[in-house]
Amino acid sequence: MAVQLPFLTSTNFSGLFNERFWQNAWPLPPQNELKRGALVPDVALPGVGLSDRVRLSNEWKKQPLLLVFTRIFTAHQYCPLCYPYLKTLNENHETFQGKGVAVLVVTSTDAQQSEKVKADMALKMPLLYDPSCQVFRKYRTGQALGAPLPAQFLIDQEGKLHYKHLFSFLEPNAPLERLFQEIDALAQGATVTTAA
């Protein structure tokens, strides 16, 4: 039986050409200039299945936080670079938990689309949604072709940036091994010496 991948097989474009699409149609490269040790923006977002908005500072005060901005166009249209990455993060959710790190995923889909994404992918991680893309813009992740670009931020318990990865064509998302390296270094109070 052939495996069907939603980002390759779907021809359902319903919901794609919305206000968010046109706001993000013009390409803007990632412009986040936060350096290691800088305070990151503290925001609150709604999440799938959550009654209250999630304030980032409430999460990082409990434990270090991996904030994952992902690129999903609609519940029917996944980014071919972000879909497998999200699956990998989801498969390693227990490893992140074992290392004492919370993972929050942020998407630009609306509430209804986000519910479908979380269910379809059986995401174990909380899925927050930002259809106005205001948080993507605060973190200056960039945008292209109708959606914000992906990015990952590892934040310590004081709300300071420990590591960031911004989209590039050579490396769209942070390699899992690098994330684990950075998480281990954060736990030991060290700095990974390879270039960020």
Q: What are the main properties of this structure?
A:
196 residues, alpha+beta, Glutaredoxin
Describe it:
By secondary structure, the protein is of the alpha+beta class. It has one domain (17-188): Glutaredoxin. It has eight helices and eleven strands. It has helices spanning 6-9, 19-23, 56-62, 82-91, 93-98, 111-121, 134-138, 176-188; strands spanning 44-45, 54-55, 65-69, 72-74, 77-78, 102-107, 127-129, 143-144, 147-148, 151-155, 161-166. The strands form four sheets. The protein has a five-stranded mixed beta sheet with strand order 7-6-3-10-11, sandwiched between helices. Strand 10 and strand 11 form a beta hairpin. The chain is globular, with a radius of gyration of 16 Å. Mean pLDDT is 87; it is low at 1-11.
